[in-house]
Design brief:
This is Histone acetyltransferase Rv0428c-like SH3 domain-containing protein. By secondary structure, the protein is mainly β. The chain contains one helix and five strands, in the order αβββββ. The chain is globular and about 45 Å long.
């Protein structure tokens, strides 16, 4: 299955990692799938929503939920 087809088949709210082309190489978007349409997908990362053109996607997969955050200040 093509990565773009996988993204379109997953329901919103699924945690995903999407690798896509950028100028000079590749980058990843890790987070919650907000939307996947015929031209692009939106992934909600820790830093905000990332819109990824499906034509630039080279790999995508569903990933498990994020681990719980650790309490700050404990050593």
């Amino acid at each position: 299955m093509r990565p773009s087809a996988l993204l379109c088949d997953l329901p919103p709210g699924t945690r995903v990692v999407v690798r896509y082309r950028i100028e000079g190489g590749f980058t990843d978007a890790l987070g919650e799938l907000v939307h996947a349409g015929p031209a692009d997908c939106v992934v909600r990362t820790r830093r905000g929503d990332v819109t990824v053109p499906l034509a630039q996607v080279v790999a995508a997969k569903q990933v498990p939920p994020a681990p719980p955050r650790r309490a700050a200040g404990r050593h």
